[in-house]
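Problem 12. The chain below contains 125 residues. Write out its predicted structure in token notation.
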Amino acid sequence: MRRILSLSVSVDPGAIRSINMICTKENGEIVTPDTFKYASRVIHYELGILFNFHSLRHTHATTLIENGASMKDVQKRLGHTRLSTTMDTYTHPTEKMADDTVAIFEKHVCQRKENFVGKSLANNT
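Solution.
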């Protein structure tokens, strides 16, 4: 049998400050994780779209990394102890990431080529 304890707390109304939440219902109530879980079940079963609430964590992590966020910051944000969990399980390669990687390499190669050509011309004069 569980014992439920009651705690009486008095709060100074002047000490309470408003919090601007991102996800709220039309009436201003906070949208809870259970609300999202319910919506994901509706999407999955009634609309026939393969989706689950947990996949949002993967999307969140991948989107952050794709747009230049620090891997350590994403690890902390997701509450992972090990960076490898964030990297190996929660982030997924995207076409944008592949394109960005090619662009980085091409930029480096072009800079090296310009430096080499510049030095060669300077040595020949």
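Discussion. The CA atoms of residues 2 and 8 lie 20 Å apart. Students who got a different answer should revisit the alignment rule from Section 12.3.
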